[in-house]
Design brief:
alpha/beta; four-stranded mixed β-sheet; seven-stranded parallel β-sheet; 15 helices; globular
């Protein structure tokens, strides 16, 4: 039987690549639910092509537009953020791929876990903000969380068959983003267009900026802590410009296992959807003889302090990663709109981590309230 997939964020970079996989492997997978935040036109196009059971447009003002466009299709149409939490509970869904960008992915992921839906996790912010609570809920409901990020997929693949062997260190690789090798003085007049260029990966706008600031790697360090139950001091970020080694795991005997492949997000997406099987995917094979050199360097945290801020946040614990994440989302949005300079992004995050109230013991409601308070105040500044 086909595996029926709910794609939360089907119009984004991960969502569209997931639909490419479904189209290529239509005998294996079926799009059951598609959701979008604001991109109604692409959602309509996807719905007509893939014929899901239902679609959700989070922007309620576009409900009538989507409804009318799909009136001749046998597809249910819902709207609003609450609908995202409802559709993931459908009994027909076999797995939920969470590809919504940012904090918005948290509540639908919680709802899916509580209804015992396996999670293909592409929304790293969910684990950054509420990793302790998410992992607890996953254990309580016996729900697997299958990582979609290329780095976490690599780690997950490296530890297969190693469950009784303690991890000594996770080596989390990063391309270095658009500005690898530059210093702070070189970044003073960086434009949005400059920052939206990534040498190896095709990603959404927010994730691309996070890659340029190295915040993306900081978020992934926190995500790795919760996914793999490893102390953050044993997770090391490594600059690997070639993006061939997607991460490595060192074990106590000194052995290091790595996962290598071409930089293509379709591979980790497919692995998460098909796990524990591996399914052939054409045109992504890595010819090892074409790989002339692989280099590894330490990150420049003086130029790119966001990585240090992420380590600081997770070591503090409580709602501090939530404060950091909310401030980053606001800062990146302001940069993309041309309201602040590139180098102001870490400054805004650092100040927020100093100014907002720290809460040690948190539940989901605490995270939601923290996120709202930080964003409301920073947006008004």
């Amino acid at each position: 039987m086909k595996k029926k997939i709910a794609i939360l964020g089907s119009t984004g970079s991960i969502g569209t690549q997931t639909l490419d996989i479904i189209a290529t492997h239509s005998n294996e997978f079926q799009a059951e639910v598609l959701t979008a935040g604001d991109n109604a036109d692409l959602l309509i196009e996807q719905a007509k092509r893939f014929q899901p059971n239902c679609v959700v447009i989070a922007n309620q003002s576009k409900y009538n537009y989507v409804k009318q466009a799909l009136q001749d299709e046998d597809i249910k149409v819902f709207a609003g953020k609450e609908a995202l939490e409802e559709v993931v509970t459908f009994s027909s869904i076999d797995i939920v791929l969470t590809a919504i960008v940012g904090f918005a992915g948290l509540k639908p992921t919680v709802a899916a876990i509580k209804h015992k839906k396996p999670i293909a996790l592409a929304n790293k912010e969910t684990m950054v903000v509420a990793g302790e609570e998410i992992t607890r809920l996953a254990v309580e409901n016996n729900v697997p969380i299958l990582p979609v990020d290329s780095e976490h997929s690599a780690i997950f693949q490296c530890i297969q068959g190693e469950y009784h062997n303690k991890i000594k260190q996770i080596l989390l690789t990063a391309s270095g983003g658009a500005f690898r090798g530059l210093k702070r003085k070189d970044l003073e007049n960086i434009t949005v267009e400059d920052a939206l260029t990534n040498p190896n990966w095709q990603m959404g706008r927010k994730v691309t900026i996070d890659s340029a600031t190295l915040m993306n790697k900081g978020l992934e360090v926190i995500e790795a802590k919760w996914l793999f139950d490893v102390d953050v001091d044993n997770i090391t970020a490594v600059i690997h410009p070639q993006s061939i080694v997607h991460s490595m795991v060192e074990f106590e005997d000194g052995s290091i296992k790595a996962q290598l492949s071409r930089p293509n997000m379709r591979l980790p997406i497919l692995y998460a959807l098909s796990y524990p099987k591996r399914i052939k995917y054409d045109n992504v094979d890595l010819n090892i003889f074409d790989v002339k050199n692989l280099t590894f360097d330490k990150p420049d945290i003086d130029t790119f302090p966001c990585l240090s801020l992420a380590y600081k946040a997770i070591k503090k614990g409580g709602n501090m990663p939530c404060i950091m994440n909310a401030a980053n989302e606001v800062a990146v949005s302001k940069f993309l709109r041309g309201e602040i300079k590139f180098l102001q992004i870490p400054d805004i995050i650092d100040r927020a981590m100093e100014e907002f109230a720290f809460i040690k013991d948190c539940d989901i409601d605490t995270y939601i309230q923290t996120d709202r308070e930080v964003k409301d105040k920073l947006i008004r500044k």
